[in-house]
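Usage

Read records sequentially. Each one opens with the input sequence:
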Amino acid sequence: MPRVNFALALHIGAGHHSTLKSKEYMELMRETLKKAREELDKKVAEFHEMWKRRGVRKELHSSLDQMFCPILTNVIANLENSTLTNAGLSSNLTRYKSITECDACVMVGGTEGGKRSRWGAIGAARGIRNPIKGAEWLMERSSWNTCGNIVSRSLTEPVMLTGLGLWEKIRREREGAEKDTPQNDQTQICSKRLLFPEICENPTDLDSFLVHDSAKKRWEVFNERLYDTVGAVMMVWLEENEEDSNQTSHSDADEHALKASYSTRARKRRRLNGGDYIYQPSHGGPSDFCSVTGVSSGGIAMKCEGRVGEAALAGIGCYADAHCSVSCTGAGEDIMLSFSARNIAEQLEKDISGQEAIWNVIVRDYVSRRDLQKGAFDNPKAQPRNIMGALVLSRDTDSESSTPRKTRVALHCAFTAWSMGVAHLSSFDDKIHCSIHRQSQENVGKNMFYQEINLLQS
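and closes with the structure output:
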């Protein structure tokens, strides 16, 4: 039976975290990961029970993201339910109407074996209790588009909705008012599996929905600036026990066919990063990886109505593929212009260190841009530019001559803001590690804080 390994990390944004609330921030992160650990242990036990039924093993290999993705979105949803974060309940209010409009995105990376990436997102969304759950719901629904006769040709499920689009869609579908939804057996099965996200029940309460007193105070006094986007990164993969691997052999022809099935570049560099789940069975084939990442944000303070930020855009606020997964936070408009998440992913595929890869994007390409040099750094309560953070999980394997392959998983935290709250856990460590990293005022917006933690070595 394969060993199920996992690594999970979350962040509460790169911004200005009050030292007076440090204990509250730490407690929030610790309690969130404590719940996640319990869910992970249950899923691992469930996986082992299902593995004993040989007939479903192939399905287990291809559905790890469906098993574990809800845990990642539950982590972000728990952060959304806190008044300490700029996501969900205590999101920043808009400039003129003082209402809450949220962004969120979740993405599952594709594989070299041909499995397509998929993602779902909402932008400037209203009336959704947990934006990340709305994004996950859209991602799962949109996957029906590639499932043959599940969805009729006349109806394509959306990947992204903005404004009241998702609220209206959920309300109508829940009431059975969407007549063109096909009602075949498979659709009914999928509908039962995908629970509707919680929404505002009374249309007259939409303007006040999720508007918290703390957000009102920030809007009225504007004495805090919050760029913070919350996010989580997670990796889950299978590895063969060493004693089992000694009993397994492959012919030279089989080994040659396996190596020929994926590119030289992929064989040279095996790296998986941030915000997600990764699965690698014992043979290490390229189609066995899976990655997931998610982000959620209430947007920048005093934003215009209808403004969509980086947290709603795959490839910008978050990105995942067969090699990496990244979660970004910071000044949304500048991150959007820099395509930061995908650029970090591309840098991490190169044969360079994780620090250099992230530095190339955050400092060389982001901070050093001339159009970002007009920020005000003297006043910590001002709205400076050049504020960005990234949380990345990277996974490397040794050369293919090693049997079983040795795995190294590292957590990378980098930011140019005043502070960034990060927490992580792994299957190789019973402890939950929480910290709020800080840097001096003179470095804000100019230099990058960086920390790399070796999470597990198998």
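Summary fields computed downstream for this record:
- The longest helix spans residues 22-51.
- The CA atoms of residues 47 and 217 lie 47 Å apart.
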